[in-house]
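Notebook p. 47: complex prediction with zinc ion.
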Amino acid sequence: MDSPVIDIHIHIYRTSEQGHLGKEEYEIWEYGEKDVTLSRYGGSSEEALTAIEEAGAEKAVVVNLCSRSSLMEEGKLELPRDLTDEQREKAVKEIAANLDSRLKASNEWVCDLARSHPELIPFVGVDPGILSPEEMEAHVREMAQDRGAKGVKVHPVSQGFYMHDPRMSGVWRACVELDLPIIAHVGPAKSGDQYATPEAFTPVMKAFPGLRIVMAHMGGGSWRRLPEFAEAHPGALYDICEIIEWTGAPRAPTDLDLAKLILRVGPEKVMMGSDFPWYSILHTVERVRELPLLTDEQKELILGANAVEFLGL
Ligand SMILES: [Zn+2]
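Predicted complex, structure tokens below:
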């Protein structure tokens, strides 16, 4: 029997324009050069729902990445176009001063969107550079208990923090208590602190053994170090978004390497994600079906059966 197709990693933007801008500004350098096919969408909710349907997917997890730069961009796009330089400067300062309420409003928006579209499953974003530890914890609890949030999204590189940062402890405690899983960006940083290599997750895994963490991109540009991490942390889960579109690039795995990596960490721990609107959901599904070495049953697990378990559907 075919299991449903579930995408556990998509992004949605308020407008298609904002999504296109986000795609242009987010540099993916870690695999080296490759002519990768991006989705044609900007990632508005309408486009996301169309892409989900095109892929024959039943559900998609919307990870709401709330970083300083994404919230600033969102605010700037809302400004009237006819402001004088002086007015614009003042308005931009105001946006910067209100990132905390913008972050909360963004999570509320995603949760409300998911209420009217049951195919969407909301994961809310937190950032210790924007909210205080107490505010973050209270916000996550409120989103989960009153607004239907099903998990938390973090991007330690874009947001500049380590998972074991003491400012995050309250959020992680709330996640364990409310059984909210986390989807975290994983991969090397271009320079400076290596916030999100697989090893950077070891302290938090040790401190919060009940925390369910999905390591995005199978480690991204740090994929070679994933087997060692997976062996030490049998409870960790993985998604294959991005890396599956970059196979064959100079620092990326080949299709065969990726299939071996999946078998090594365990196909029952790997889930399909597309990172829409960067990549096409349909194309990602096709890429999973094309992978060598894996059996049809293992591909079914990756395409949806594992996510059914993970999300408690
Ligand atoms: Zn993503």
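Notes: Residues 9, 11, 63, 275 surround zinc ion (CB under 6 Å). The mean pLDDT is 96.
Next step: compare against the earlier run before touching the bench.
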